[in-house]
Amino acid sequence: MELKILEQYILGGIIATWLGFALIYFLGVKKSKPDHDLDFHKRTNDLVHTRDGATDVIIVGAGDGRRVLVIERDLGLQDRIVGELLQPGGYIKLIQLDLEDCVENIDAQKVFGYALFMDGKSTRLAYPLEKFTRDVSGRSFHNGRFVQRMREKAATVPNVRLEQGTVTSLIEEKGSVKGVRYKTRAGEDIIANAPLTIVCDGCFSNLRRGLCKPEVDIPSSFAALLLKNCEAPYPNHGHVILADPSPILCYRISSTEIRCLVDIPGKKIPSVGNGDMALYLKTKVAPQIPPELRCSFVDAVDEGSIKTMANRSMPAAPQPTPGAILLGDSFNMRHPLTGGGMTVALSDVVIVRDLLRPLENLNDSFSLCYHLDSFYTLRKPVASTINTLAGALYKVFSASPDQARTELRQACFDYLSLGGMFSNGPIALLSGLNPKPLSLVLHFFSVAVFGVGRLLLPFPSPQRITLGVRLILDASGIIFPILKSEGAAPMLLSSSSPAYYKSPFLH
Fold first, then answer.
1. How far apart are CA 373 and CA 503, in angstroms?
2. Nearest alpha-carbon partner for 395 in 184, 230, 219
3. Residue 298 and residue 278: Cα distance in Å, rounded?
4. pLDDT digits (tens, 9 = 90+) for 271-288
5. Best CA proximity match to 31, nearest among 353, 371, 361, 497
6. Is the pLDDT of residue 86 over 70?
7. Which helix or strand (DSSP H or E) is residue 270 part of?
8. What is the per-residue pLDDT across 162-176, written as a single tens digit (0 to 9) for each?
9. 374 exposed, middle or buried (CB, 10 Å; 0-12, 13-18, 19+)?
10. Could you tell me the CA-to-CA distances from 312 to 131, 193, 283, 287, 328 in Å, in that order?
């Protein structure tokens, strides 16, 4: 058995590729007139550019600030298997950044919710979008096309220079980061200096170690297929199949293609090269795929274009360093089951943009550190809600021989199937529309209590009471370690401005 991990298909690379472009556009551009409809946060002073020829910010992975130098490993069109689903909360952030046109003209598909499948049953979970006045929904697309649109947008900003190169190290002086050393495509070693370096070089970051305390976990891997010319059971919805041993995701990424991601638990997966993976997918997975997609699934396996990637999770554990900040998967990762990576990253971009806006001179290191220090607190509501939900749902949705875990899984499916407030609350959390950590905890234990109630009715017995206690303990064993790793107290006590209630797109 071998783990064939293709670096270019890793979600971290995806975030690293386009994350900087969002920063480029908003650190480097001065709008001709204010757009009051799109401004979610309180407007501050327009950016004031520094002296000619100066560099204000270096973004490793895709950009450099007000005077912009883009240092990216590969500027070509990439074919990636994740980073293809943007939740409605992430799309709202895209609107706030004036970048919503980056999902236009790339055959992007609107997403209005999810469909859950379990043991031959299914239920539809719609995003609670009724209160939004704009064209707010999720979007799914080919990630490479989205990245190219971001590059085109960045190239329209004055003072932006794109360069293909590989950053080899940060330049440090007296405990502060002063810039980067990188190698150009031609092999030339270059030193670039700036008051602020933003590192977003993906999950394999070789620069993060001095800026955070990385604890990377690999709970599973994805085997990815592209299903062609087929119709999903629920159009314009993501499909989550609660399969054995773990979930399967399907969502349309173009008018003719559906992405299928098969989760395989553990660090070792069947080999693609010797045919073990194809055999596993056809014998173990295919029978669990909805009938509408099964033939296309088998055809995709026979075609042989199976891609794999490791699913990484890493809590945010920053080591604040003057002159540098981490973003994207180099800083924080979660299981991609809920498709929340881009929403967290875009939310972080909005926060950094707003923190830097009032600073006229980034060379004022004290003022720069003072403003950026609050970034780690301000990001907590959105990031911790999505991260915690991703980790918890992955464990709940995965099959288990333990009876209490099986009951919790069934209770979750049945709870969400009730609809109304029982589904709207959790789906608003998942979609980034209501980033309230406390609401997440309440819903999670509501599912557990719901499961216990099912066990005790119509008549409790000692065995059922014991199983109910185990169910509660199992739920606690899932959620509390994740809360601890995310920083439970700050996460639950932080005040947030959830898009679901305070978005400027509400009536």
1. 25
2. 219
3. 9
4. 999 999 999 999 999 999
5. 353
6. yes
7. none
8. 888 999 999 999 889
9. exposed
10. 35, 32, 27, 27, 13
